From TrEMBL:
TM segment ranges: none
Record lineage: Bacteria, Pseudomonadati, Pseudomonadota, Gammaproteobacteria, Moraxellales
Classification via SUPFAM superfamilies: Acylphosphatase/BLUF domain-like (SSF54975)
Database matches in Gene3D superfamilies: 3.30.70.100
Pfam families from the UniProt entry: BLUF (PF04940)
UniProt name for this protein: FAD-dependent sensor of blue light
Sequence ranges assigned to domain BLUF in this UniProt record: 20-111
Highest taxon in the source lineage: Bacteria
SMART domains from the UniProt entry: BLUF (SM01034)
GO molecular function, one term: blue light photoreceptor activity
Length: 159
């Protein structure tokens, strides 16, 4: 039901659109195709959500991924419902949800982890429990630090 109002900004605030949520979740590739289908799915996800004002940071390898998405509270809640209902094959596990004053990401950031020395350093910087990237073994604080370290380094390389 849509109710017309003479003050659209007040109506907007009625549903919490002015409150920015940050949602972090982890997932795994349930297919045995070295991440190709996962990459396609995540690209489709990016295109759909980019239009709606969501920003994101995503770290992925052939087996696992970590994604942080930020946007208006109602939209993030819709995305969470969709994750649970339509993407259960990814094994999504919620890591953290918090209100933020300022978005951390500008657009959609992506880091594909390879077996390079540099990427192994990220994984081994006390973020992961073990030599391989497996966010299911990481605590929420480790996941947050991991994302921050990867994308801070990316941003500082641009300057």
């Amino acid at each position: 039901m849509h109710i017309a109002t003479s003050q659209p900004s007040e109506n907007r605030k009625r549903h919490g659109e002015h409150i920015i949520l940050s949602l972090t979740y982890i997932g795994k590739n349930s297919d045995s195709n070295n991440g190709i289908e996962l990459a396609r799915l995540l690209e489709q996800w990016r295109r759909n959500n980019e239009k709606s004002g969501v920003t994101s940071a995503l770290v992925v390898n052939d087996n696992y991924f970590i994604q942080n998405i930020e946007g208006p509270r109602p939209l993030i809640n819709e995305i969470l419902v969709k994750l649970i209902n339509e993407y259960s094959h990814l094994g999504p596990h919620l890591s953290m949800v918090e209100e933020v004053e300022v978005r951390r990401w500008d657009g959609f950031l992506l880091k594909y982890l390879t077996s390079s020395v540099e990427d192994e350093e990220y994984t081994l910087k006390s973020f992961s429990a073990g030599a391989d990237f497996n966010p299911y073994l990481m605590k929420s604080t480790q996941i947050t630090s991991f994302l921050k370290a990867i994308f801070e380094d990316t941003e500082s390389n641009k300057s």
